[in-house]
Amino acid sequence: MILQSIDILNFKNIASATLEFCPGVNCLLGMNGMGKSNLLEAIHFLSMARPMTPIPDNALIRHGEEMLIVKGVYSAGSEMSDTIACGITKGKGKSLKRNGKEYKRISEHIGRYPIVTVTPGDSQLVSGPGEDRRKLMDMVISQAHPDYLAQLIRYTRGLESRNRMLRAGVRDSLLFESVESGMEEAAASIHATRKEWVESIAPKVEECYARLSGRRETTAISYRSQLTGTTLRDLLSSRRAKDTVLGFTSAGPHRDDIEASLDGYSLRRLGSQGQVKTFTVALRLAIFDYLREASGITPLLLLDDIFDKLDAARVESIMHEVTTSDTFGQIFITDTNRKHLDDIIAGMEGPRTLINVADGVFSPISLS
Q1: pTM of the predicted model, to two decimals?
Q2: Structural contact between residues 176 and 244, judged by C-beta atoms closer than 8 angstroms
């Protein structure tokens, strides 16, 4: 899959931009705060109808403006071409259209144009709370399995109802059982799908990390869930008295987590910045492989500030991984250093572009 072009209006610091991309490597050069990452976020917004970072939709609108719109053309060979338009208007919410037709539900869009991003904030996937890792699981699995998103929405609605009952001091056990039985099927499906996903992606992460680190270290990931070996009905029933005191549901898929280790030790506690970044890159590239296999579509790959906190050997390994393999298709890379990007372009064959970014304005740089 290729993003052929994009039109942007009032997206963060980008007042207006029209860009065409090559099907290979697209490099964005500019100082920090100029708009490189904002362009990647606009591409992510187009593919996922949501920002890369957990911020309110209105925060994407350029300061002083009332609305934004991002429109792009995707293609998969000569047989398919889709125009996607995603906009936000203050006070009216979000609009998402495919080939001029509004989606009935935004969830129908998820997975049509798979995308994988590597950002400086990915270190939170190791050091941050479990919520960050659950969001990652949900976002990735939803792109490959539309039914998963439906089960997640179903469970979340039941969870919200149960929490309202707990806060209101409801004591009727039959009422609780009615709500919990509705949550149980969704929870079982979520748990099974997450477990299968972690088990399928774990060897990919391990092998990718080994290649990127020169096989100096080994890593592993595992799935942690309170539902292992039990059912949600039994779990919630045993905790109902405790949850009544707490005022919220203390157990369930919304407490799931992923643990990462390095040479058998906790990566979170003992990993260096370089090791953590190598792990998150390996995780993202493994996710890329998973989505490509699950959907049959080659995702877009966005690499934002990939060189930060990595030694030269690991950077070289990552660039070799993504620019010389037939696995990857269209790639977007940002950096502040012209030499880094020149070295990438010089070491690869195939289509590539270099674009300068300054104050939200994009200018192509000749490679001749």
Answers
A1: 0.89
A2: no
